[in-house]
Amino acid sequence: MNTPQATARLLRADRAIHGARTARKFLARRAVIARQLDAIAPGTFHVRTVPVWTDRDGERRLATWVALTDDLGLPIQAGREAHRAARGLLRRAFPGADWTRALAYDTATGALDLDEPTMPEELHR
Length: 125
Known about the structure:
The protein is α+β, with helices and mostly antiparallel strands. The protein contains two helices and four strands.
């Protein structure tokens, strides 16, 4: 009786196919997000979001400050609706992210990372 067995070569091939499929999905998603950000505010390369507390009419509320910058780090001239749309796009694209912390999205890498200030290495001593 012959029983099929998965060999190491077949397992490696399966992992390679799965990895390539995952990479293609990631690249397609990154391209779609970059294209949509460019449609919202042309030239957008980075999106930074920072939660801030505001005091309106005696009531403290959590709001989000959004900065759109180009590939040189210069601010993009965009209206309030563009900033709101960029934040909404990222919130829909990354529903599991912790939006109560400062985050930065980079269209070149497609990564949404924590964006907190860090101390220079020289000052760690």
